[in-house]
Amino acid sequence: MDTQTCPIDLSDEDILDAMKNIPGYLDITTRDFKEVYLLAYNQALHRIKHSLKARDIMSSEVISVKPDSSLEEVAEILSENGISGVPVADAEGRICGMISEKDFLIHMGVKKTGTFMTIIAQCLQNKGCLALPIRRQKAENIMSSPVVTVTEDATAFEISGILTEKNINRVPVVRQENRLVGIITRSDIVTSSCSIGY
Amino acid sequence: MEYFKKMKGDAKSPPFVGFTEIFWSWIGAFVGIAAVAFIHYNILTETDLLMIIGSFGASAVLIYGAVRSPLAQPRNFVGGHLISAMIGVASYQFFYSHMWLACAVGVATAIAAMHATKTLHPPGGATALIAVIGSDQIHNLGYFYVIMPVGAGALIMLLVALLINNIPKTRKYPEFWF
Predicted ipTM? Predict the structure, then answer.
């Protein structure tokens, strides 16, 4: 199960110390306690993953760009906000695509598996700017579409499945007519799972 | 190999309890056993009735000495004794011509029945066994054994447990009733 994370590894001494702090004879061994703890931990994780909804973990202040935004603008927005992807929404707030670093790379002629390092390598070899081919283009020219979206009722568990399955890092949350209301990134999922244990 | 490995016992024993715990275990057991023993030896002497049986000593360990244990809660304590007593008497009446069988069936069935009813209380096994190997006085009680000494005695000891176990700040009894 991909939701299984490792709880704190309790030592026998931790458990015995804790038991000493509870007055009265506790009719349980350290091993039994650990077994119950592990099972209960995973059970709780499972329950929370299934009860946490998209609306609980999404960022609702979404930065988005317009389909006719220039790529220069888009690149600036990404770099200023320290994000690697942004949804493209029309004037009514309906989502029509997603743009990520990957889309830039692909349209700059870097092969699909390429990374930023591919760009560096090519720049160093050609001594030229690879961004030239996309310089005059707009968001709608390079965005990925159709977009994988989720509704506010999707569970964190389902969303982490979608992110893994589609190999994407963020998924927009939409209401009727694909209206953008939030965005969930992989780190939102991780943070929500971590907050359970800490 | 796995089978023999299991005999090693790799878990740690629970820690010692403090002085307060020892003190209140003693007080509870003293008052609880005193109550049933006094009735048995000073009030019921002219009758054929009993109020104390050996398994109450074992129950005292749990309900006064390990008050947090699920095995010591009212459901287990009273339920376990009543169910086991019934099974013990029945086992004796069915199999008294083969005492070894009556003993084994009584105790084994008592454990199974306590498990099945979520009333596991270790002294129940003794209660069932006493119904089989006890004196003629016990055999003559028939199923009345379930009501007295077992039921009545257990209720008196439960009352004492409620009164005594809730005196110290560090104790609370019961954890649950049913």
Answer: 0.74
